[in-house]
Design a protein that fits this description.
The complex is a heterodimer.
Chain A: E1 2-3, E2 6-12, H1 18-42, H2 47-59, H3 62-87, H4 95-112, H5 125-154, H6 158-177, E3 203-204, E4 207-208, H7 210-227, H8 229-239, H9 241-246, H10 251-276, H11 287-303, H12 311-331, H13 338-353, H14 355-358, E5 359-365
Helix pairs in contact in A: 1-13, 2-3, 2-12, 3-7, 3-10, 3-11, 3-12, 4-5, 4-6, 4-10, 4-11, 5-6, 5-10, 7-8, 11-12, 12-13
Chain B: E1 8-9, E2 12-13, H1 17-20, E3 29-40, E4 43-54, E5 59-62, H2 69-76, E6 84-89, E7 92-93, H3 99-104, E8 107-110, H4 122-127, H5 139-153, H6 168-181, E9 186-190, H7 198-213, E10 217-222, H8 226-232, E11 235-240, E12 243-249, H9 255-263, E13 281-291, E14 297-307, E15 311-315, H10 322-330, E16 337-342, E17 345-346, H11 352-358, E18 360-363, H12 367-371, H13 378-383, E19 393-394, E20 397-398, H14 400-413, H15 430-442, E21 448-452, H16 460-475, E22 479-484, H17 487-493, E23 496-501, E24 504-510, H18 516-523
Parallel strand pairs in B: 5-10, 5-11, 8-9, 9-10, 15-22, 15-23, 18-21, 21-22
Antiparallel strand pairs in B: 1-2, 3-4, 3-6, 6-7, 11-12, 13-14, 13-16, 16-17, 19-20, 23-24
Helix pairs in contact in B: 15-16
Classes of the chains: A mainly alpha, B alpha/beta.
């Protein structure tokens, strides 16, 4: 292609360094924000003012920041639940169901210890909180592991099985918390009983302590993927199952393993949102909203190319934008769904710009090529 | 169909194909390339190539992998545009814009990898994409025309058969017929004898001679199989490092000379088989049976044994159970019946990794699909056979530093041409990739080496190297199972030769007593009693 006397073409990249990927992604975000300003302009809103409002609520405002970070933690965990199976070439679409079951298991522990009776029941937090987290992880791991087992043992498509398990988990939660359910709120508001005050998770400067777990997981997963034998086997299986098998890697073992790990982390995401975020402390009536939010983990995982560290800024951005978008929609009296639209455009642009992860644009001055252009 | 403007020449539009080739006489130059150069980044793939082609000749183009054959072929067929140089057809300089131009000028190409629709019939495949086919198919007329063509050149294919039912040789014949039906007068054949049985090869050579006799120019591109070149071609052009190093009449050449021109040094064709006193039995296979991927018996009641310091060659035509045999022994396919003993121990149901640990090393025939991972670095590819070794794993953490040292050492020792140990598997040529696999398997010093088609598709230099290494493994005390579809290779390397046909061992013959014709008959399933 020739533009203004320059021969412009595409060249496949030999390698992509981390900072190149970061730069391309930053550029994509800018492009998405510029594109989205159209929405504001059409509504008669100054886009710059709108963005200032969004970013300051998402990352500066005291309340907004805690909310953004709570969502960030949730998204980061959801992303890891997706990334681990993705490394093995498998698609976990079931983080939603896994986090539902994880939350149910966490509340099951409280229920079993009599925590439903009243919010003032004292249960030793140092013992019970770890127990709740463990139960959440096991619950998520079991549901995930089921899909992994079906895949590894009977070659049942994991996308279909995890998706369908999501529905089962969704209605299971409903059954448990709605009218007549075991976890029903005594006031019957279609939500679960509230956690006793003694089990409200500790916070650090208002931020749930689960942030430490999520960030520690980033380091652990990075190490697991890059340094360990298990990480090597997962990667080999993901890139070429036949070659992995030749090398003695067991396909069923890998698919069960990655889904158990991914499911456990999704279960923790459930614990995090419904038992550790200040002001929630119950399986909320709108639990399906968070189930849907977990799906953004898929896109965050794809954008970060399966890198646990790169997933941190991506999840932070999405956590903040979903929160700031919702805020600005109310504040500026804009139409419903502004936050979804903003997130959607950001994601599409980021994914689209991944084209430049693989290709780069080249240009050189046009030379006279007698042979190239042929008169008909 | 969109009407294409005619191909332009320096003397205005080119006349139609019929006019152009109206009075071609055998021996007349029909195509000429002058100073054709093609660069990829810093690599000069074709360096000022001069090449000419005469009607009625078989003109073989020889060269090792990376010599520039594929580039030249793709320029001829206009899949690539040359950076410099000129192409003339019967003296007209032509500017080809796409393969369609090449086809319209009577250039036909038969790729090594078949490009046919498996579910369609032969005639449907031949007609597919033909301008005459138009919107309404007249298969009947087409069938008559193709039948006439195949009789003329001596091809035997059932035009109503579905492509998936055909053998490799028949599929190739379909591709050739397709090119001829499209009007090809110059036929480019890419590695035409790969994957053909000896009988099919013979038939192909006959057809090539027939086509040449009737005025076509046939251009086979070849990396190995020098005897075939010598048998049928009239002239040979040898490429090395992107340049034409020789162009000669075949009658002035012999195998030694061609190999030396290709490789650039003397090549040993007759490797001396080292004599090793065989040790105890390492592998004992008893009444082994297995199914193939479709669930059909592929291996039936196979029994043999291999001693330490011995090579047992499995000779056979592709698809007679060799693949299943290798996979059952490596643990990748379950045995339906029978027993496998390794060092006296029953390993019939042992998992794959345990077999590696016990000392079985497997070189699979599928280098890129099974033997390596294209997106892995060479270090990671080497780790495929070492990631479970205590020496390279400490408490579940891989010792990448040592893996890197090992890889670097193997790259040196085996002379692997790679940009470095962080190069990806897919960046390597077939020969170098095979060296990586071979190096990594042999670095384990396996007690039993399973080598499936270890030299298939490799050029002469790499083939010679792989064979030497296999013999070296034997002298160092490995028991070797060599599976090969190249009968000469089996005869050259093996101490004993087993012929396999339809999943059965037709007989096992010691190398001293083996005659080529006898083994050749056995792998065709002809004389079972020939085994003695």
């Amino acid at each position: 292609m020739t533009i203004a006397g320059y021969q412009v073409g595409l060249k496949q990249r030999a390698a992509l360094s981390g900072w190149q990927a970061a730069l391309i992604s930053l550029f994509a975000i800018l492009v998405a924000l510029v594109l989205f300003s159209l929405v504001f302009i059409l509504d008669g809103v100054n886009p710059l003012a709108a963005y200032r409002e969004i970013f300051s609520y998402a990352f500066v405002n005291q309340y907004g920041l805690v909310l953004s970070l709570s969502r960030f933690i949730f998204l980061l965990l959801s992303t890891y639940a997706f990334i681990i199976p993705a490394r093995a070439g498998l698609w976990n679409i079931g983080m939603t169901g896994q986090l539902y079951v994880g939350s149910l298991c966490a509340y099951g522990v409280v229920y079993a210890l009599g925590g439903k009776a009243s919010q003032s029941v004292y249960l030793p937090p140092l013992l019970v909180i770890p127990l709740m987290m463990l139960a959440a992880a096991i619950g998520g791991a079991l549901l995930g592991g089921l899909a992994g087992l079906l895949k590894g043992r009977f070659d049942v498509n994991e996308i279909v099985s995890t998706m369908l398990l999501n529905f089962i988990a969704f209605w299971l939660v409903s059954e448990m918390i709605k009218e007549g359910g075991i976890f029903m709120n005594p006031q019957g508001r279609s939500e679960s009983f509230a956690l006793p005050a003694s089990l409200h998770a500790p916070t650090i400067a208002g931020i749930p302590f689960t942030v430490l777990i999520a960030l520690a997981l980033a380091v652990v997963l990075k190490f697991l993927f890059d340094k360990t034998r298990i990480g090597y086997q997962i990667k080999a299986f993901g890139l070429n199952p036949a070659a992995a098998r030749y090398a003695g890697i067991s396909p069923p073992a890998i698919s069960v393993l990655v889904f158990v790990l991914g499911g456990a982390i999704a279960g923790l995401a459930g614990y995090h949102y419904f038992a550790a975020v200040p002001g929630v402390y119950k399986i909320a009536r709108n639990y399906s909203y968070f189930g849907d939010l977990a799906f953004y983990g898929i896109i965050a995982g794809l954008i970060s190319l399966g890198d646990p560290l790169a997933a941190i800024p991506v999840s932070l951005l999405f956590g903040g934008m979903s929160n700031g978008g919702r805020w600005v929609q109310g504040k500026l009296h804009m139409g419903f769904g502004l936050d979804y639209a903003l997130l959607g455009l950001l994601m599409i642009t980021l994914v689209g710009f991944q084209f430049f992860y693989r290709y780069q644009i080249t240009w050189q001055k046009e030379e006279a090529h007698g042979d190239v252009a042929i008169p008909g | 169909m969109q009407q294409q403007p005619p191909v332009s020449t320096d003397k205005g539009p080119l006349p139609s194909l019929e006019e152009l080739l109206a009075d071609v006489k055998p021996g007349e130059t029909v195509l000429e390339m002058r100073g054709v150069t093609k660069r990829f980044a810093d690599v000069v793939a074709n360096d000022r190539i001069d090449f000419d082609l005469r009607a009625g000749e078989i003109h073989a183009v020889l060269g090792e992998n990376g010599a520039g054959k594929t580039t030249l072929m793709n320029i001829l067929f206009r899949l690539l545009h040359p950076d410099e140089g000129e192409i003339y057809i019967r003296g007209h300089r032509v500017h080809l814009r796409s393969p369609v131009d090449a086809i319209n000028l009577g250039i036909g190409m038969v790729h090594q990898h078949r490009k046919l629709v498996a579910a369609h019939t032969v005639i449907e495949n031949i007609v597919l994409g033909h301008p005459k086919a138009g919107r309404v198919l007249n298969l009947k007329r087409a069938e008559e025309e193709v039948k006439a063509l195949s009789e003329r050149y001596g091809f035997k294919v059932d035009l109503r058969a579905r492509v998936w039912q055909l053998s490799e040789g028949e599929k190739q014949a379909v591709e050739i017929l397709k090119a001829l039906y499209r009007g090809a007068r110059i036929l480019i054949l890419d590695e035409p004898t790969t994957a053909l049985t000896p009988l099919e090869t013979e038939r192909l050579l006959e057809s090539m001679v027939n086509m040449a006799r009737q005025g076509l120019a046939v251009v086979p591109f070849i990396t190995h199989k020098l005897p075939m070149v010598l048998a049928v071609s009239d002239r040979v052009t040898v490429l090395r490092g992107g340049q034409v190093v020789a162009q000669l009449n075949t009658r002035d050449a012999d195998e030694q000379l061609l190999a030396r021109l290709m490789v650039g040094r003397e090549v040993l064709f007759d490797i001396q088989r080292p004599q090793v006193e065989p040790g105890p039995i390492v592998l004992q296979v008893e009444h082994l049976s297995a199914l193939n991927d479709k669930g059909v018996p592929a291996l039936e009641n196979v029994s043999f044994s291999i001693r330490q310091g011995e090579i047992l060659g499995i000779a056979g035509v592709s698809g007679n159970g060799q693949r299943e045999l290798a996979e059952v022994l490596a643990g990748m396919r379950p045995a339906r019946n029978g027993r496998i003993r390794f060092d006296g121990r029953d390993i019939t149901h042992a998992p794959i990794r345990e077999r590696w640990r016990l000392g079985i090393g497997y070189i699979p025939a599928e280098r890129t699909e099974v033997g390596s991972i294209g997106d892995f670095t060479l270090v990671e590819n080497v780790l495929l056979n070492f990631y479970f070794d205590d020496e390279l794993v400490k408490r579940g953490v891989l010792d990448y530093r040592r893996a890197r040292e090992l890889t670097r050492h193997l790259i040196d020792e085996y002379g692997i041409a790679a940009p470095g140990e962080d190069a990806r598997g897919r960046q390597l040529s077939g020969g170098n990739l095979q060296k990586v696999i071979l190096a990594r398997v042999l670095a384990r010093h396996p007690r039993l080496l399973l080598a499936a088609l270890p030299t298939q598709g490799l050029d002469i230099g790499a083939t010679e190297f792989v064979r030497k290494k296999i013999l070296e493994a034997k002298t160092q005390g490995s028991a070797v199972l060599l599976i090969s579809e190249d009968l000469d290779e089996v005869l050259m390397l093996s101490d004993r030769i087993a012929a396999i046909y339809e999943g059965r061992i037709m007989g096992i013959v010691p190398a001293e007593k083996a005659r080529r014709e006898q083994i050749g008959a056995m792998i065709a399933g002809i004389s079972e009693e020939a085994s003695s």
